[in-house]
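User: what does the whole thing look like in 3D?
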Amino acid sequence: MRVVIIGSGPAGITVAERLRRYRKDVDIILLAAEPGPPYAPPAMADYFLTGRTQMLFWKDRDICERLGIDLQSGVAVSMVRPATRVVETESGVAIPYDRLVIASGSNLYAPIEGCDLEEVYNFKSLTAASALVARVRQGHVHQAVIVGAGFIGVEVALLLRELGLSVTLLEMADRIMPKMLDTETADIVRASLDARGIHVRLETKVSAFAGNGQVARVELEKESVPGNVFVAATGLKPNVAFLRDSGIDVGWGIQVDNRLRTNVSDIYGGGEFR
Ligand SMILES: Cc1cc2nc3c(=O)[nH]c(=O)nc-3n(C[C@H](O)[C@H](O)[C@H](O)COP(=O)(O)OP(=O)(O)OC[C@H]3O[C@@H](n4cnc5c(N)ncnc54)[C@H](O)[C@@H]3O)c2cc1C
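Assistant: Here's the predicted 3D structure for the full assembly of 274 residues, as structure tokens:
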């Protein structure tokens, strides 16, 4: 029996680990679009500040070797073909499965003009976060503009401030972390950001990242905010584009029942995909 798991985020590695605990005889293949061992996104900011890897590689770097899991990192799945029970990778390799687990998580959702420009960074993956921090550490940047004050935007604001930048945090709602905090608690977080010198602007909607060749400002309704490093932290979108034409029910994310089964037999979905 071969189980293929797409995605080595917290969901994917947890499925692999648990499966191995119950079944020693199953072949487990873990396909991960990013390079490197499984990591915990919540520990990224601490890692960049302190260099500590213990929390980042929360299962230890060698977890897959220890558990006999075939981790194929840097391998992105581009297609799932249930009729022949194979997944196809971006490099054209077909990998057969008996059971398939989709744990492809989510990525940045930024419905803002210019968000796909190269100089607009995000903090959703270790690859993306490393690019942002490398840019900051190169020097020549001193003013960061972060769009979105959800928990990721707030975390990036704190990190970049610690790294010595001036930070402006723009949020279209009337409070910080509007999906998570009530007004009273949001005010406490706001005060803490103010105390650290982070410039927060609420009820401020960004319509575009703009500039001549290189992003140099964000556009608001009546003005623009300049900067030299820009971060979009406006929301998350499930990674499901590669499931098109697979026959698996996909809405905004993957549709599963209360046992995490998709509509296609022997294909399951888990993690941050809805
Ligand atoms: C900065 C930050 C701080 C956070 N802090 C907290 C916190 O304090 N508490 C909390 O509960 N949560 C926190 N979260 C959220 C938490 O990290 C997510 O809920 C969790 O990572 C979701 O796990 P997942 O495995 O479902 O998805 P992901 O972590 O998104 O992992 C999915 C993996 O699948 C890979 N993948 C995607 N498509 C493919 C493909 N086609 N082929 C192969 N691989 C693919 C991706 O590269 C990714 O590595 C934080 C997130 C971030 C970014």
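In plain terms: The first helix runs from residue 10 to 22. The chain has a mean pLDDT of 96.
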